[in-house]
């Protein structure tokens, strides 16, 4: 599934009309009919449907929806909330079609009229404004949106909730709070931003005839889906051996945090790594061994329970290294992280407190030849960028891309919609996971899965996408079959990995 900005969506629309030759009236007809099919799944024949019509293509879609539903004997009232001069072009064509087909259009004359209309509605279809909104809504639309949000009716938005920006980076807006949104053609960027995604309610993309090649031409991002996971997951050769599936090193675990590195090691092995060595302070080794007898162990020097750089680690026998899990933020550990960044000639995954220590080594990170992968949550990303968490949450695509390009790293920006970014700016969004993952240890498990995937002889970007997909899907299957979003533990997610492989690999 492709993800677009408002400009990219306009480019897709214009190219399809001007270069492909598909009439805009036909696209509008397709859009209205596609949304109508979804509305029919929610509305009963006897229920009162109110369609609020604004200017532009969004309003035009609304006229088509009204005509389509009336033809199938639904109770529909079409209310135009802007003056006639605002309804032009293709939208006006479909307005006239509705009238000539026996439909009526009511012009909204006052707030009291709107109160009466909304009060009698079982279902409100929001076809007021589309993706062109910039800034806060003005009157009278702002008051209409407020009344819709206070109604008891089910609210369906066409393409995007009216007033909501299509792009990231906007914090000051007034928007319809939809129960359902049927997105036209391609998902909009704001559906993946924490501050705006909630306004969509349950959403789904409907196809209206844009050629796939045109969408791919103008869209710069996509969502990683089950189909892509199946297509790109490396297959195990019948006569492969443990060396074929990677020899990995996990460096982490202070005396107070043995559980984190234990889960990373377990997850890496469960996800398919051939050999995993846990490099940690010696006090942790018996704890890890009691939980994961399949791992090997490398005792590392420590001071006051934290890892230090006394004595060099041999880094040349590994296919990938994960560092930072449970290391804490002692100053002595920074040099250990710096040494791994400088000396390792294989992919390095930097997670948790390793990201904190990495900030002091960014110039070295930039010079690395092998892949560097960081897996920050928004707070860690804000720390690296020297900005606020709220800024990162409002513009995660831009901030992740900015950092990835500047320092030549792969960024896995974790969240409800985890964003994976390559050093050249390519981005995708993971499609799996649930709120049960908002718990300590989930990131440690993701790091272990990432380590295993990176060693499976495939493109690094695909490895990261598949790691995030597997992590989230394991959590989803556990919640579907055994756990709830309240009691799901990171260890449960590890136990869910085999279920994913059995069902969809």
From TrEMBL:
Q: Which Pfam families does the entry mention? A: Carb_kinase, YjeF_N
Q: Which PROSITE patterns match?
A: YJEF_C_3, YJEF_N
- Give the reactions, separated by semicolons, that this protein catalyses: (6R)-NADHX = (6S)-NADHX; (6S)-NADHX + ADP = AMP + phosphate + NADH + H(+); (6S)-NADPHX + ADP = AMP + phosphate + NADPH + H(+); (6R)-NADPHX = (6S)-NADPHX
Which GO MF term does the entry hold, naming one?
ATP binding
Entries under HAMAP family matching the protein: NADHX_dehydratase, NADHX_epimerase
Gene name of the encoded protein = nnrE
Which cofactors does this gene product need? Answer: K(+); Mg(2+)
> Which family is annotated?
Belongs to the NnrD/CARKD family. In the C-terminal section; belongs to the NnrD/CARKD family.
- Descriptive protein name: Bifunctional NAD(P)H-hydrate repair enzyme
Q: Does the keyword Metal-binding apply?
A: yes
| Superkingdom assignment | Bacteria
Coiled-coil spans in chain: none
Q: Which GO terms describe its biological process?
A: metabolite repair; nicotinamide nucleotide metabolic process
The cofactor binding remark recorded in the entry reads: Binds 1 potassium ion per subunit.
Question: Which amino acid positions bind (6S)-NADPHX, per UniProt?
Answer: 57-61, 130-136, 159, 326, 377, 444
